[in-house]
Fold this sequence. Notes:
The complex is a heterodimer of chains A (about 290) and B (about 170).
Chain A: E1 7-9, H1 14-26, E2 31-34, H2 40-45, E3 53-56, E4 66-69, E5 72-76, H3 81-86, H4 88-93, H5 95-102, H6 107-112, H7 115-121, H8 128-134, E6 138-142, E7 147-151, H9 152-155, E8 156-158, E9 161-162, E10 169-176, E11 183-189, E12 199-207, E13 213-221, E14 228-229, H10 231-236, H11 244-257, H12 269-290
Parallel strand pairs in A: 1-3, 2-3
Antiparallel strand pairs in A: 4-5, 5-10, 6-7, 6-10, 8-9, 11-12, 12-13, 13-14
Helix pairs in contact in A: 11-12
Chain B: E1 2-9, E2 12-19, H1 24-31, E3 50-53, E4 56-59, E5 72-74, H2 76-79, H3 81-86, H4 91-98, H5 108-121, H6 127-133, H7 145-157
Parallel strand pairs in B: 1-5
Antiparallel strand pairs in B: 1-2, 3-4, 3-5
Amino acid sequence: MIRAPFQLHTPPSIEEAVRLLSRCVQNGEDVKLLAGGQSLMPSMNLGLVAPAHIVSLNHIAGLDSIRQDGETLAIGAGTTHRALAESEVVRAHCPILSETAACIGDVQVRNRGTLGGSIGHFDPAADYPPVLVLLDTAFQIVGPSDERTVAANDLFVDYMTTSLNADEVLTEIRVPVLPPDTGTAYVKFTRVEGGFAIVGVGTCLRLNPDRTCRSIRVGLCGAASVPVRLTSIEATLTGKAVDNAFIEAVAAAAYEAAHDPVAELHADADYKREMVRVFTRRAVRAALERVA
Amino acid sequence: MHTTIQLTVNNTPCEATVDTRTLLVDFLRDQLDLTGTHLGCATGNCGACTVVLDGLTVKACTILAADVAGSAVTTIEGWTQDTRQSGDLHPIQDAFVKHHALQCGFCTPGMVLSVQQLLQEKPHPTETDIRHGIAGNLCRCTGYASIIKAVQEIAGTSSDEKQVSLSPWGRGLG
């Protein structure tokens, strides 16, 4: 039993959910959205958060849809990690997202936890943010008076802080359909399976017919309090031969970018920075092996 | 704040009034007296509270009872309903006993439900599959090796002519 009392709302639509959120905000009452509850419920059980109102998104139909819309995949915020990991369309057109979803938590967590919940909670060690940042994801957000689309760079503001307002709901994320010749990989360093990433590295790599780099994108978690995308290498390494020197250049750029990692119990800042370098190498190698 | 919910527990429709703060695990244990579902950490780590919610394993300490109105929940008690009536053990139970896959037994109900889901999805899991499949269930007694052996035996048995029904309401060895 959670100690602090709260009111539970189970709205049947996004509009109703937003209306409830606005009312709480206007009344100055603390309100939290509940999706899969894999972070919120433990936090409430421990008494770390005690909102006066909980608005559950688990009774809104269609929030877990996955559809291909031309060159875009539109994924409902209520999609579970499991559904994302198993989705044929996601595996075919944005495999890095399925791979990422499949390494989150454990079976039970993936069965219940959602994409939108993870994004909204934004633990800086979460697996989705670095991948969403490198994919140029667009986030669809519904508020009391309007609907807006936010780019990944503008969503993740700081440690556990997004640019979502308290009266807004994230409803959908849109990622591009990746060209079929893209090699992708998400690799993660954890102390035990199911743990949050000490370091996580996502990579998308495409080659020219002569095996030089056509495009490379790398996103990191664990390098700072927000996900880091290695934009510096995207232009400089295009056209370069993809050899050991190339991989070292990416790893060096990742090490440089990870100048301020958040120290934690099992990994101090220097160690994490070194691990960013190691796992970036592994991610690029894995992506290279998967280039069609 | 209280609310009245209707849901199906172990194939039986039930209606109850719950405090909205009630976790699904507390609801099952305290209001329905289904104490086979254990409460370990209350932080979604240990998996002792694992139940099957609408066909998928979940940790019942991370779910509000009032938020799953209308759903179907299967606990360890419901899972063994049929085999208990017949007096037989389910093949998973048999294998756990044979291989000493439990000592104190605190993790066992959750462990068994996770093994059940794993075998439904992958009837012939590799050792790696098994380790991934039970990653959400902590056992502080066995060191896992005996649990893995038990699951391997079931998976092996089901591959020969003796077909093992692995559905929750299966009849065991045919």
